[in-house]
Amino acid sequence: MTNSIVDERRKEIMIRLESAHNRMKRYESFRGPGVKRKILRALLLRDKYLIYVLCQLHLLGQREVFAPTFLDKKIRVRVPDLDASYLFFYGILLGLEHKLCRYLVNELNETDKFFDVGANYGFYTLLAQSFSAEAHAFEPNPEICKLLEKTFNGENAVGVKINQIALADTIGEVNFYDTSAAGLSGRGTIISETAENMSNFLKVQRVPTTTLDQYVEKFGRPTFIKIDVEGAELAVINGGIKTLTTTEGLTLAVEIWGGERGRKFSTGVIERLCDWGYKPFSLNELGQPIAVDIDSPIAYIDSLPNTFDNMIFKK
Length: 315
Fold this sequence. Notes:
The protein is an alpha/beta fold and 315 residues long. It is 40% helix and 23% strand. It has helices spanning 3-28, 35-45, 47-56, 82-90, 98-107, 123-129, 142-151, 212-219, 233-238, 241-246, 259-265, 267-275, 297-303, and strands at 63-68, 74-79, 113-117, 134-138, 160-163, 166-168, 172-178, 203-211, 224-227, 251-257, 279-283, 289-291, 308-314. The strands form 3 sheets. Strands 5-4-3-9-10-13-11-12 form an 8-stranded mixed sheet. The chain has a 3-stranded mixed sheet with strand order 6-8-7. A hairpin with a 5-residue loop joins strand 1 (63-68) and strand 2 (74-79). Helix 1 runs antiparallel to helix 5 (98-107), helix 2 packs across helix 3 (47-56) and helix 11 (259-265) runs antiparallel to helix 13 (297-303). The longest helix has 26 residues, at 3-28. The radius of gyration is 19 Å and the shape is globular.
């Protein structure tokens, strides 16, 4: 693809992303109690709102649907999973992910090899597929992985490899704490402590693990890695020491938690990557990277205005 064609595609995708984001913001303005607000929400989303409410009330049960995305591609999701609701309603992820979406639309290109670690329904894999030569998705939840395989099936699987496995710092098996029964499939984790507050909804199962370094030996080095694994980010990084310290030009997008959880699970991530020479960046509302001077990872985590944010680390 020539640069002009790629630039036109970026522009087209960004316009569609902003349109979907504006629809989402309009809907959010109608949130809250009261019959009038519920009617306005129903009018805005029509049949989707009705299906979602009936599923929540257990009148339809769980349903698998293909949700159209702003990429003009469909993604297989489960309703009424809260972590799929924004995909089902608007074809995008929840608001705090919008900055990373914008960043990726501006940065990805066809020469990239994109690793989506903690893929969930595969939104970022789908986005990367729109620009990248290769996209590798890692999702340990076997039921969610089946949906990934339905999204990336046949001609839609071109350039995509689905891995029903957890990246960690060991090779073998670990407990996976599945939070899907709570309607929060994206909170599944291999870290028991991060799932404790949903213990009544947990399904614990054994899942296979490998390390980033082991995977790279077989499938080659990535140029971009997105990591969102609910507290296991440091385990992923520790399993990729060789890859992360010797791959020039590598970019990572890592979910960082704020508050006490961030002090416990995200501090080590920032420290380790900065020690290895990665430059940290936050993202502004336009998805533009802003260099961050981190003297103290704990102070940075305590300064986060939200419960989480995506940080960019560039080698």
